[in-house]
């Protein structure tokens, strides 16, 4: 969720009060997200609550679609290999996937904007639920802040797909 705070701030469309509210949400919910003593089951409803509140704040800012192009083009992340199982499960359940890759600026613009619902005048009117997971494996201390700002979940030195697959299986399971 730190990503959304960064987005609003970098677009300079967010009033000071909104910036403060986004930072308050970050300060309240981020410690829960990284609390190793809490289970995923305890965290998930609180993370949804966080996303919902942050999305509502951003929609209230009337962020314009045309301002997002530069922000998306400047994204700096990489696509990992061996995601076939993950991709197949997403497709099977009609779940969209947002991928950031430094080399695909034009594609990123389309992928990113497709997850935001804009009205006929180009003003943001709603957000879809998006969860961004970053894999940070090298230069951890140097890159940690940028990853925390760019992703909802940051996995440090985790070469597995255990967390993304556990989340996906939890979200798609029938209860």
From TrEMBL:
GO MF entries: 5'-nucleotidase activity; magnesium ion binding; nucleotide binding
Entry annotated with the keyword Transport: no
Reaction(s) catalysed by this chain's protein: CMP + H2O = cytidine + phosphate; N(7)-methyl-GMP + H2O = N(7)-methylguanosine + phosphate; a ribonucleoside 5'-phosphate + H2O = a ribonucleoside + phosphate
Annotated signal peptide: 1-20
Superkingdom, taxonomy of origin: Eukaryota
UniProt GO cellular component terms: cytoplasm
Compartmental location: Cytoplasm
One BP annotation, GO: nucleotide metabolic process
Keywords carried by this UniProt record: Cytoplasm, Hydrolase, Magnesium, Metal-binding, Nucleotide metabolism, Nucleotide-binding, Signal
Protein family according to the UniProt entry: Belongs to the pyrimidine 5'-nucleotidase family.
UniProt xrefs under PANTHER family: 5'-NUCLEOTIDASE (PTHR13045), 7-METHYLGUANOSINE PHOSPHATE-SPECIFIC 5'-NUCLEOTIDASE (PTHR13045:SF15)
Job description of the protein: Specifically hydrolyzes 7-methylguanosine monophosphate (m(7)GMP) to 7-methylguanosine and inorganic phosphate. The specific activity for m(7)GMP may protect cells against undesired salvage of m(7)GMP and its incorporation into nucleic acids. Also has weak activity for CMP. UMP and purine nucleotides are poor substrates.
Assembly and binders: Monomer.
Protein name: Uncharacterized protein
């Amino acid at each position: 969720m730190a990503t959304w705070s960064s987005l609003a701030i970098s677009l300079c469309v967010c009033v000071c009060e909104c910036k403060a509210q986004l930072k308050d949400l970050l300060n309240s919910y981020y410690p829960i997200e990284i609390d190793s003593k809490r289970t995923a089951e305890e965290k998930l409803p609180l993370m949804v609550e966080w996303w919902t509140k942050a999305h509502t704040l951003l929609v209230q800012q009337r962020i314009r679609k045309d301002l997002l192009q530069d922000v998306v083009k400047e994204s700096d992340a990489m696509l990992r290999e061996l995601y076939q199982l993950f991709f197949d499960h997403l497709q099977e359940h009609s779940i969209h996937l947002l991928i950031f890759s430094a080399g695909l600026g034009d594609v990123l613009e389309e992928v990113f904007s497709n997850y935001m619902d804009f009205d006929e005048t180009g003003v943001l009117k709603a957000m879809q639920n998006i969860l961004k997971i970053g894999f940070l494996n090298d230069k951890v201390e140097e890159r940690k802040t940028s990853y925390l700002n760019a992703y909802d979940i940051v996995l440090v030195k985790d070469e597995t797909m255990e967390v993304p697959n556990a989340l996906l299986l939890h979200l798609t399971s029938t209860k």
